[in-house]
Design goal:
This protein is α+β, with helices and mostly antiparallel strands and 325 residues long. It has 4 helices and 19 strands. It has helices at 55-59, 65-82, 95-107, 190-210, and strands at residues 2-4, 8-13, 25-26, 32-44, 86-92, 118-123, 130-135, 139-148, 162-168, 172-179, 216-221, 230-232, 237-240, 249-252, 265-267, 270-272, 275-280, 284-290, 319-324. Strands 2, 3, 4, 5, 6, 7, 18 and 19 form an 8-stranded mixed β-sheet that branches. A 6-stranded mixed β-sheet has the order 1-8-9-10-11-17, covered by helices on one side. The protein has a 3-stranded antiparallel β-sheet with strand order 12-13-14. Strand 15 and strand 16 form a beta hairpin. It is globular and about 55 Å long. The chain starts with a strand and ends with a strand.
């Protein structure tokens, strides 16, 4: 396995007016609680056609700047209602979209503690979409890890990078943002997800070498149901498998204790739990679950965005939790 040089990688401290106020909660043990949301927002392209978009957007006569502005407004309204301190998004086209989201949210809000002043974004060069994070707290030490696999006897598909960043609230949270290979297309896509799982495991090991008690959160669209991971039934932990080292990596998943009747994705009327938070170290997750709202039907299914009608939000539900560390 070779790691390629950093792909398109941008980090911004958004220049917005007002004082930076802490919106996190503290308790008598000097712990901090913040709210986190993860959402795959489904092919969120801007209004320009640069040739890297998916074919249905390139061919559409309806998709333009006005359609983008309307979709942006709907997304920002949903993010406002979720009211998280850290918002992690998959399937964002570029850093310009991240700025548009941040500025739109700031323009609708007069409370300085609710403004997302910090953001980061990463994707592979020439790729259509990447991952982003918007934060009310400083983001530092951004890294992006890419895979170049030449050991399977197969041509590796384009795989989205693993984004690593530190959130300071003011205690440090190590964040890994994931968007693993989807199950669509021919062949065994699980091969490539196993490589991405191995990369994540190795990065957690490296973080723990620096600080054994580090608070670590892994989030994103893993395109893999919680039941497809290796689960230790004795303590309900999840083993992230890495064949490149003898050390085992165990993380905790709130899905294993969640009694929600719905998942985060619905495929052919079957619920799947493919969007995840995994945590390790000195932190805990509470109030976890998929979130419904105007972006979902009455039965909880997400209202997917349709290019032909320009209606809908995303084919995923957002998941959220309160994280204490």
């Amino acid at each position: 396995m070779k790691k390629k040089k950093n792909p398109a990688l941008l980090m911004a401290a958004l220049a917005l007016a007002g004082l930076l106020l802490c919106s996190c909660g503290k308790n008598g043990r000097n712990e901090i609680t913040i709210k986190i949301v993860n959402w795959n927002v489904q092919t969120f392209f801007d209004g320009n056609k640069d040739g890297i978009e998916y074919p249905n957007f390139i061919k559409s006569k309806k998709w333009n700047q006005d359609a983008y502005a309307a979709r942006l407004q709907k997304l920002c309204k949903a993010i406002e209602s979720l009211d998280a301190d850290l918002v992690i998004l998959e399937e964002i086209e570029n850093i310009g979209v991240v700025h548009d989201i941040s500025n739109a949210l700031a323009g609708n809000n007069w409370n300085p503690s609710k403004v997302y002043r910090y953001a980061c974004f990463a994707k592979e060069p020439g790729a259509s979409i990447g991952s982003a994070a918007l934060s009310r707290f400083p983001l530092r030490n951004l890294k992006s890890h890419s895979l170049c696999v030449q050991a399977e006897g197969l041509k590796a598909p384009s795989m989205r990078p693993l984004l690593e960043v530190d959130l300071l609230a003011p205690k440090r949270l190590k964040l890994f943002v994931n968007h693993w290979k989807s199950k669509s297309g021919a062949g065994d896509s699980g091969v490539w997800r196993r490589w991405q799982e191995s990369l994540l495991a190795q990065k957690i090991i490296e973080a723990k070498r620096q600080d054994e008690s580090a608070a670590i959160l892994c989030a994103g669209d893993f395109n893999q149901d919680i039941s497809e991971f290796s689960i230790n039934r004795e303590d309900s932990s999840v083993e992230l498998r890495s064949p490149f080292c003898a050390q085992k990596v165990f993380v905790r998943s709130p899905w294993l204790d969640c009694d929600s009747p719905i998942g985060s994705y619905n495929f052919r009327d079957k619920w799947e739990r493919i969007d995840h938070f995994f945590c390790s170290g000195d932190l805990s997750l509470e109030d976890f679950g998929p979130r419904t709202g105007e972006w979902s039907y009455d039965d909880g299914r997400p209202i997917a965005f349709k290019i032909h009608s320009l209606n809908g939000w995303s084919d995923h539900l957002p998941i959220s939790c309160k994280l204490t560390f």
